[in-house]
């Protein structure tokens, strides 16, 4: 796909996105979300066209289990940022939506104030797709938001399966939002998640929960100290902090920590090298997914997989032999 | 690979394996473990040659974390089975061996009595391979042991990452060996593992630990009752039982449970349908692995992946565009 292949409507859409027009951005995201072949071609041309702008937002990945207060946090944190004159986009990744219809609400009512803010853009999670497609689509939506001039792109996900790792692989920094909890629950935090978090934010540090939140925060801080130091972290990171999204306390401190961390990473070259490594990762992942997609790409391929699978299941052929058959049929 | 392409040495080796010659079996397993292209061809011919025998062993998958007493259990359980006139093969799957040199001991000293038993065959885990290769190699070793006339093939693995699921996918029944433990540790058992276990065997029900083992066994029984009933289970399964591998108590009861379970599954057709589904699974998995292997199969492919990866990392190309380039270069 080259610039020359672009059709006029994509040119106009690209211009409108680059001008920061919200409706154009919304339409552009709808385009990259589509699975239709002609839409994919148009989306590729669009992404090519906006790439030249070279605009970069701070990409913040955010995860937390349901009930931890993600919506309230995003609303309060987002309002604080827009109050500072920053433009904030919020994208939701919900891998469960394919099955359940989504545990992240599809409408904007859960972040009512932020969704009315002219400096904020909230895009709910589309439903009915697999994780592979979600990753591509979300990365492309992030690129569109950056091209539209947003300073900060918040990528939100529920803590389910592989979605946190996926979001971390497209973020400059990763926040894990937690509720005040007892020691037992702390042990239940997956080690892998602790290892990708840059900040653990203990929410609901208000009212009766405040003492519990303080203890929880100290517990996480202790747990984080046990992790091996990562080269991309300055002294003291990853860090556990405490906020009340409801009472809007602790939020400037969270932002200050983020600024410290990103400034250090920019200075040390970690920012650029992380983005480079992420781009390479997604290239390799798309190649892998593209190869595997050949197994289901045509009716002939699907029929052959089914027929060979049945021969193997009946015991007429060994799995390895049938696999060789399929692989040589696929060519290469 | 057809029968006609077989070379004479493979014919002789196949005959010797089918005659149950232990040294031939050991050599045959070494052959299927080899990654050399000519060895792979010979291995394929060998597997083709033995397939006709149609011999079937009971394949028992066995997992448990280090320290739970797997070696002692296998030795005591294996000796009981050989004492009943059965021929028992033990294969070890150790995915950690690639990194650490192996947490399952490579020598036979840990099952000293069983390794000297003429009706037993113990094959330690080879080192330095990835999980994909481990799966194929282990399945082929299982097929060789079956062809050599073993009645029971025990496939042992440490509870690390994906290895338990992999072993379960090549077993007729799956045992999870556990140590007596408090309620907290019980909660740490991964739900996915509970769901693939047919029997949870609480070991070390001897001496001071006996009361704890009884409580642990009851706890697991309770946890198992909470799981959704699987169609391949008769009433009362999956089950938690208690043994002392050291004092050799409870082992005939474990065997009786296994016989009950397998007899029921054979009657109901679940045995055959499970084997068919497993064969199909491995066919599909080999196709997937074979496709992905093309990315590293030739120096040209590797060089192209590296070059495109660098262009993407530098920001010269979008991940999706570079992926399309690679995929069209790979053809198909």
Largest interface: A-B, 44 and 44 residues
- General form of chain A: globular
Helix residue percentage of chain A: 40-55%
Termini Cα gap of chain A: 23 Å
Question: Short summary of the structure?
Answer:
Two copies of one chain form a homodimer. The first copy, chain A, has helices at residues 8-18, 22-33, 37-51, 70-83, 97-100, 112-116, 131-147, 163-168, 183-187, 191-196, 210-226, 251-268, 270-293, 299-314, 319-329, and strands spanning 58-64, 88-93, 120-123, 152-158, 173-178, 199-202, 239-242.
Describe the model.
- The structure is a homodimer of 332-residue chains.
- The first copy, chain A, has 332 residues and is an alpha/beta fold.
- Chain A folds into three domains: 1-53, Single alpha-helices involved in coiled-coils or other helix-helix interfaces, CATH 1.20.5; 55-267, Rossmann fold; 281-330, no CATH class.
- The first copy, chain A, has helices at 8-18, 22-33, 37-51, 70-83, 97-100, 112-116, 131-147, 163-168, 183-187, 191-196, 210-226, 251-268, 270-293, 299-314, 319-329; strands at 58-64, 88-93, 120-123, 152-158, 173-178, 199-202, 239-242.
- A seven-stranded parallel beta sheet of chain A has the order 3-2-4-1-5-6-7, sandwiched between helices.
- In chain A, α1 packs across α2 (22-33), α1 (8-18) crosses α3 and α14 packs antiparallel against α15.
- The longest helix of chain A has 24 residues, at 270-293.
- The two termini of chain A are 23 Å apart.
- Mean pLDDT of chain A is 87; it is low at 1-6 and 97-104.
- At the A-B interface, α3, α13, α14 and α15 of A face α3, α13, α14 and α15 of B.
């Amino acid at each position: 796909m080259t610039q020359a292949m672009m059709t006029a409507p994509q040119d106009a859409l690209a211009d409108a996105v680059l001008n920061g027009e919200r409706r154009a951005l919304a339409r552009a995201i709808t385009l990259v979300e589509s699975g239709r072949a002609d839409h994919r071609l148009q989306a590729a041309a669009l992404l090519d066209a906006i790439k030249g702008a070279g605009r970069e937002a701070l990409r913040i990945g955010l995860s937390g289990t349901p009930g931890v207060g993600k919506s309230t946090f995003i609303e309060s944190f987002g309002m604080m940022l827009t109050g500072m004159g920053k433009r904030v986009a919020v994208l939701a990744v919900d891998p469960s939506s394919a099955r359940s219809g989504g545990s992240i609400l599809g409408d904007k009512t859960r972040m009512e104030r932020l969704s009315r803010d002219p400096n904020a853009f909230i895009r709910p999670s589309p439903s009915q797709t697999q994780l592979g497609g979600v990753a591509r689509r979300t990365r492309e939506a992030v690129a569109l938001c950056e091209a539209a001039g947003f300073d900060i792109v918040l990528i939100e996900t529920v803590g389910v399966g592989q979605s946190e790792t996926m979001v971390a692989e497209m973020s400059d920094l990763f926040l894990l939002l937690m509720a005040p909890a007892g020691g037992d629950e702390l042990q239940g935090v997956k080690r892998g998640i602790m290892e990708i978090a840059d900040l653990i934010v203990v929410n609901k540090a208000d009212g009766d929960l405040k003492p519990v939140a303080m203890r929880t925060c100290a517990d996480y801080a202790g747990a984080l100290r046990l992790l091996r130091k990562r080269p991309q972290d300055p002294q003291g990171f990853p860090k556990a902090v405490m906020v009340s999204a409801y009472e809007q306390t602790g939020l400037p401190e969270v932002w200050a920590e983020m600024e410290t961390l990103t400034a250090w990473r920019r200075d040390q070259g970690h920012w650029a090298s992380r983005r480079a490594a992420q781009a390479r990762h997604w290239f390799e992942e798309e190649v892998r997914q593209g190869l595997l997609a050949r197994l289901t790409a045509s009716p002939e391929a699907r029929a052959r997989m089914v027929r060979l699978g049945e021969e193997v299941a009946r015991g007429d052929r060994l799995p390895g032999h049938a696999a060789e058959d399929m692989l040589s049929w696929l060519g290469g």
